[in-house]
Amino acid sequence: MDAAKPAARGPLVAEMKKHEAEAAAAEAAYRQQAADPKIMDSYGTAWTDYQRFRDAQLAASQAGNTAEALAQRTQAAASGEAAQQALATAVAAESADAKTKRDQTTGTYQGARTLIVALLVVGLLLGLVLGLYVSRLVVRPLQRVSAVLSALADGDLTSRAQVSSRDEVGQMA
């Protein structure tokens, strides 16, 4: 297809307009979550200027006014460059925002990990202390009964275990 012929321009312009509509929809969706909406405003202004100069360039070209087409092309190029610069700034802002969010998330993760480790250590210590306490509750009376039985084996019939519980160990005493 020869774009220099007026009949060939129609489908190309229609395709260009279709892509512009898709880009506008993507921009609108992105604008709602942009890290810095002001940058998108700057982009929108530059892009609108670009489209206006480009359309003027196309009209001048179709009318055969080469000088006007070249002048509009220069302005369209400058506006296009401004739009690209705004997009580059938006990318930089998004990267900075992503880094900030990553750092915040990393801090939250590290805090949660520290809390979990601390709770595990406290739980283990409490379990150890509770285990020692229960074992002493069982072992001390058994040691008293064992001492009395040793004394009985040695012939001392006056020893008492001093165990007051009502469980098996208390009944033995």
Query: What would you call the shape?
Result: rod-shaped
Provide the low-confidence segments as ranges.
Answer: none
pLDDT averaged residue by residue: 89
- Calculate the terminal CA-CA distance, rounded to whole Å: 111 Å
Annotation field: number of helices: 4
Helix percentage range: over 70%
Strand fraction: under 5%
Oligomerization state: single chain
Structure write-up:
By secondary structure, the protein is an all-alpha fold. The chain has 2 domains: 6-108; 121-172. The chain has 4 helices and no strands. It has helices at 6-31, 37-63, 66-153, 168-172. 9% of the residues are buried.
In short:
The protein has helices at residues 6-31, 37-63, 66-153, 168-172. The chain is mainly α. The chain is rod-shaped and about 135 Å long.
Which helices and strands appear, and what pairs or packs with what?
Blueprint: H1 6-31, H2 37-63, H3 66-153, H4 168-172
Helix pairs in contact: 2-3
Main features:
173 residues; mainly alpha; 2 domains; 4 helices; 0% strand; rod-shaped
